Task: inverse folding
């Protein structure tokens, strides 16, 4: 069975001193060091990045990465908006399953803070359909419509959403690599300015720079020498890019499908999961994720989150977004899906320092593209 | 062994009446019809596209394609500049090797003619390194430097290059889907205006729109029911994105490496190949390809091409670019690598109409990203 045998992430944040490919280089070398390998021992690289083409006229990254690594190995760029990192991990795992290589790298990276907010906002809208872009919908706008539907359907208020941000900022305070490392109270979240009603600034993940990389191996001899987490499953599902073609505005159906397949492949169920990294690009998205994956029943999320059972230190059997999630660790788009896998790796191998969850045996990562058009769900275990 | 069991390509050309995703939809439905399948029988889709993000702020195509297909299947977008289509085919084949699906689609598409020449030229430069872009190098400029080096090193003239265009335009005249269907004489090529010395307009492939799709299957029962070509190998190699870091300006080293691996995996040699689709983005590139793959020795290309042995009707054992190549069939970037596979499929299964090569048993496709930073070499056989 394939395993994750190494991980490195750069700091997430406003990294004005480093270029995209300096971050990529740092992540590659960090991950190789973590796995005690040199570049010549890597058979292929999968790279997740969304925005470098749109923001910086920068495509053909596989050849740039070959230049950085100094080898002629196969390098693949994968793009599925905010799920680019998760897709890179998924295909890296398939590449091992195909027997095309023994040990591969999956990297994700994004450079987002060198541009004006208008440029970045427009570029991020590229994850939405042409008709949604033409209608002037930004991503906060799309998720705001989904949040409004959810709050109305289940009779919740903005306070229910605020508990997601409160928890994840606490987790971010425990993670040195997080973009935001400050706890925030529910009251301060509720007082923050609206971005797209009912979502406020503190319901939204930030614009971040960063790069993350994991080493995957199918080589049992190599794996044995390392702290490692087995890859029990990784599954992908899609949905229409436009919200108007969806069955429902109050669920991420692609995540539901991908999770069902992932649990089936892994042979475990939601109650087995101890740590989960979920795609909380907005607070509402973590509730959708909890329900889609089957941790909570549809409509329960708003009430459950107030119980704070998924917060580090609660002693419950499932802790969510120990990295701080996208909300507090930051959301350098392409890096996010890889950082999620990396955080599970740290937790499952006992390397999560001040945020180590006890008895973490199974971990799940859910990475979403756009407003739910793509989902990747991966399950790791020890 | 995996096989190609169906193929469709739209017309290549200036298709102002159709959007990118209308072309994608036509190619998907055409390929499914060719393979007598409906969309529900497809397990995954791999999509190669380079420019939609840069030119049209259009990313997250996997979800758009899911919307078109009307299913929730995994869809992956792959981008490696002009090798995006070849990479999509390569990963589709690996996906089957991984046992992740039984039957998958590989699609490539590009919409390039709706923009100003300045926009398209700038966008295409995204396949070059940042430092090359900053130096003002366009793709004709990069290949012109390589062509200049080759002509000087081996003492050839522009006439030697012109024979590539002459041959491929003749082939284009035989292919109804080609962008250009008019024969051109060597004299007229030599009289055409310079774009970047020594390359003239008629040494360059055009800016085209188009979409192509192939169906790949690992299902022996299904394959048996179809005209099919077996996928004997598909290999990828990379090189530095910047020319200045290359070993040589007169070879595409990544193609050499990928071809060596592909012949080894397929268990055949260059002399076994009867039809080849090579990446002639500029005339010089076909000579580089012929030499890198081992059809001709280094430096022989300029002389050999004048013999016209690779031209349809010559009766020789290897005919090159029967589709018209990028030069005459057109070069809708993401589509090119898939159209190459499709042309081999048509030739190997006896469906190449007025350009059918007799006794075509083995076919090879070589797809290049940028100035050689990425190469994909795939070998099909019957």
Result:
């Amino acid at each position: 069975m394939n395993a994750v045998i190494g991980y490195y992430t750069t700091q997430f944040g406003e990294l004005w001193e480093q270029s995209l490919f300096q971050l990529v280089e740092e992540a590659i070398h960090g991950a190789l060091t973590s796995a005690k390998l040199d570049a010549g021992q890597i058979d292929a690289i999968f790279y997740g990045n969304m925005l470098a083409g749109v923001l910086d006229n920068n495509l053909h990254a596989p050849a740039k990465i070959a230049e950085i690594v100094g080898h002629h190995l196969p390098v693949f760029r994968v793009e599925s908006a905010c799920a680019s990192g998760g897709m890179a991990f998924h295909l890296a795992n398939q590449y091992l399953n195909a027997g095309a290589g023994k040990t591969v790298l999956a990297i994700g990276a994004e450079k987002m803070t060198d541009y004006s907010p208008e440029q970045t906002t427009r570029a991020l809208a590229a994850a939405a359909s042409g008709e949604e872009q033409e209608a002037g919908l930004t991503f906060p706008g799309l998720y705001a419509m989904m949040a409004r539907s959810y709050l109305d359907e289940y009779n919740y208020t903005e306070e229910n959403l605020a508990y997601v941000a409160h928890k994840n900022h606490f987790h971010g305070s425990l993670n040195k690599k997080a973009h935001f490392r400050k706890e925030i109270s529910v009251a301060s979240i509720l007082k923050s300015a609206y971005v797209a009603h009912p979502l406020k600034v503190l319901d939204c993940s930030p614009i971040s720079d960063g790069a993350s990389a994991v080493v995957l191996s199918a080589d049992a001899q190599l794996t044995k020498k390392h702290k490692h987490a087995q890859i029990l499953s990784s599954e992908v599902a899609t949905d229409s890019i436009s919200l108007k073609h969806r069955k429902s505005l109050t669920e991420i159906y692609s995540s539901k499908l991908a999770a069902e397949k992932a649990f089936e492949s892994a042979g475990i169920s939601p109650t087995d999961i101890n740590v989960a990294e979920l795609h909380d690009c907005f607070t509402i998205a973590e509730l959708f994720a909890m329900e889609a994956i089957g941790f909570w029943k549809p409509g329960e999320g708003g009430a459950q989150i107030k119980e704070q059972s998924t917060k580090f230190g609660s002693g419950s059997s499932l802790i969510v977004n120990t990295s701080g999630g996208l909300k507090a660790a930051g959301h350098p788009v392409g890096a996010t899906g890889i950082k999620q896998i990396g955080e599970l790796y740290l937790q499952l191998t006992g390397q999560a320092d001040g945020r180590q969850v006890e008895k973490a045996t199974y971990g799940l990562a859910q990475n979403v593209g756009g407003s739910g058009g793509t989902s990747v769900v991966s399950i790791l275990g020890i």
